[in-house]
Amino acid sequence: MSLSETITRLRRMKKAVSRSARQPARVGRLSELPSPSINPGNLRGRFYVPERLAPNAPLVVVLHGCTQDAAGYDQGSGWSRLADRRGFALLFPEQNRSNNPNLCFNWYNPEDVQRGGGEAASIQAMVEAMVAAHGLDRGRIFVTGLSAGGAMASVMLASYPDVFAGGAIVAGLPFGCATSLPEAFGCMAGRATSDPALLAARVQSASGHRGPWPRVSVWQGSADQIVAATNGDAIVAQWTRLHGLPPQPSRTETIDGYPRSVWTGPAGEVLVEHYAITGMGHGTPLMPGTGEGQSGEAMAHMLDVQISSTDRIAEFFGISSRPKAGSAPRRAAAPEPLRAARPETKPERVNHVQKTIEDALKAAGLMR
Hints:
Elements: H1 3-21, E1 31-32, E2 44-48, E3 59-63, H2 70-77, H3 79-86, E4 89-94, H4 110-113, H5 118-134, E5 141-146, H6 148-159, E6 166-170, H7 181-188, H8 196-207, E7 215-221, H9 230-242, E8 251-255, E9 258-264, E10 270-277, E11 284-286, E12 302-304, H10 309-317, H11 352-363
Parallel strand pairs: 3-4, 3-5, 5-6, 6-7, 7-10, 11-12
Antiparallel strand pairs: 1-2, 2-4, 8-9, 9-10
């Protein structure tokens, strides 16, 4: 990506940061999760458990985007209100400014995305804490997130595919497309590989797992100026290849006025789906309200486009009492023990052009 393109993206992100910086941090409906003993990524944790939580209930891990916090994302997305109606537990890992000044999960940092290390290990430790504390169903653990949180959801699905039965990636990135911040901006601009074999190989090498693989729901706005829409296609290519599915969908349909593509398995179960939200920019698609099929409220990066991704994702996960978009498989295998220490990395050499880009990123507060 050229220096001018990088600066243009920096300006867009700085506008988003300045808008969100005026919003105070909130706790809202969430409770604070005690810090797990294994927390190499130095993350906070919030959680929500409805009053009427059935034994062996599902768990949904929700990851906020840049400039957001857990409570604000919950308020906008409406996940905890839906949990009240459907009876599942929620975990909201939350970024610290000491890790990233704009509260982005570090989805491109090799230290933070590998199984047993960094932020990925911290999130998995929180999952274990929630399962143990509330008697949750290990076969029905799911993850979703927006933007950097969506990219981190990709990380969790790749690094811990034996833990998560499914995931939903909203305006996110395919796993393994970047190993540095300049590369991350290239991915966001749509310059990552689209080769399904290479994309799938990156996931396979992340854990040594060979299946079954999590089911994946992909949501992407066609007018997104921060994360190019081609990233949604790349995520679909990554996971359809892992599932051994053809590039062309099994069927296409229109849901609430938007195209949905579906890839099904041998028994007709939905393994991958892709919602292309035509005309939508960068954010989570919402149908605000409290009625059936409505969730959340519009705010920065939480967009009223008259389709509730929150409700539709819960249906895809198979944890909603409404007609499901597919039945969810279960995971029974326990994760491997986590390492407490973060791995060391060697300093990278940068040429003059890359140093200029990184200086610009640091000046904008987008690089440590």
